[in-house]
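Input record (one chain):
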Amino acid sequence: MNSHRAPTSGERGDILLNKPATLRKPIGGTDASSPAAVMKRLWPYIRPLLGMVFLGIATMGIVAATEAGIPMLLKPLLDHGFGAKGSDHAKWLVPLAVVGLALVRGAAQYASGYFLSYVSNKILLQLRLEMFERMIHTSVGFFQRETASTVINAIAFEVNQILGVLQSVVVTLVRDSLTVVFLLGYLFILNWRLTLIVAIILPAIGWLVSKINRRLRRLNREHQALTNELSYVVEETVGGYKVVKVHNGEPYEISRFTEMSHRLRGYAMRMQVSGGLAQPLTQFLASIALAIVLTIAVVQSAKDQTTVGGFVAFVTSMLLVISPLKHLIDINQPMQRGMTAAELIFGLIDEPAEPKGGGRRLEGARGEVEFRDVSFAYSADRPTLDQVSFKVAPGELVALAGPSGSGKTTLVNLLPRFFDPRGGQVLVDGVPITEYDLHDLRGQMAMVSQDVVLFDDSIAANVAYGQTGQTPDRERVMSVLTAANLADVVNGLPKGIDTLIGGNGMRLSGGQRQRLAIARAIYKDAPVLILDEATSALDSESERHVQAALETLMKGRTTLVIAHRLSTIERADRILVMEAGKIAEQGSHTELLCKGGLYAHLHRIQYQQQAA
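The corresponding structure, as predicted from the sequence alone:
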């Protein structure tokens, strides 16, 4: 999005990971990482779906209850279903109950998954639409501040992240919490003495797992940061391969890459050491608990205080409770990831929209443009424009010349209100542009620049872009393509004006893309035209065709032209020569050459370069 700003070192890693670099704002004026703050922002989206939420929670409760049903059925089966004296009821009813329990559990799992998916996808749709709508209506400064990957990641990926995490957290908190409650309750009913032992050992296992997980998270973060640095070394080497080869930088790049790779290997081994300890230590503690339970159960069975079925049901319940407890212990990591994603999402939704302008309508402008003591600065260091004043009559062709960085592009960007001046006024037809409705104002302007933007659509759709909500006028499209010297090219394509041109017109040459942009401007038929170095990147043959198309486009329109090639603006009615944000001199091409000032100096340099 911002092709003029080099990313900082911190942003490079974010870009490599497709993670937003700067799109971070507090949520609702509170701690952005607070679950309460996130839920407060999500509540308006959840409230209309409360019925489906409650259904999802209820069905998860059924799933949790059936978890305790499995050991409950094992006890009567083992106590009364085996042996010659086994109960006929236990032999047949318990297996049937197992099948019935599985059916209930499966149906409840399916229903809870459906209800939660319905809720999350509805919220996802609304959030994504709001984010895209806010992005479309935000100011130009936003697009200069944020990289394309930042915004794409926030809209396409981070919104999935928060809802996926939210769904998993809800499932864990509700289903696993209820599962633990039901299983521990059943354990207590079976044997309260053994349950006390489990209650002592399980928290110790949970504490151990959480300590190992915290270390793993820290190592993972550091490993990811190093991976980003390694990726950037590769990116720099690939992007600057010519410099590397010409300056014999291969040994230096290899040493950088080797050092980073060794550090990565070290972190990978430390992660293996820490992660590998979790399972054996957990199993060791669980075996201690099981050994104690077995010992006490044997003692109790000798005193007829427990049965085989009761013991098996107890051990089964104890083993079943470990998994949901581990999920509850591990919930912090995905929750924090979701909080970070929420911060990015609501940061975009809270991005201020560009001003809508006043209520004054503007239809069919005469094309008179005036800059009155206009000043502008991107930063407080130095002004980009310093009290610039000039007036353009309807139908006049005014060219802006001057060295790079003199403020030419900034000046024309103020006219469609991409930015607002810090001082002074810009007027159209004698009225300050801030009083006009913004869409009406921009409807009176067409812009063609060297950075042509085309869409992956048909030629007709690109020509008529934004001018109609229906099918483009095909006759009018062909007419403007003829005016833009592009009709012969289009007629030679297999599908004519219905031919798809690919992403940003990749199936067209540079000159054809430029002429298609001119055709779009002709189709709009706006009274004010802005040309920003529209031929600077073209070869001589393409420039000849484009220049002819531009002359057709400029007829009868108020035109502001920026051009580095001074030969393209020699026929302008007036040339404004800018230097350091001010108009240094103005006049016709002949008048400025006679003055022998800055314009004559620039013209002389270009003529010498062309002659050479």
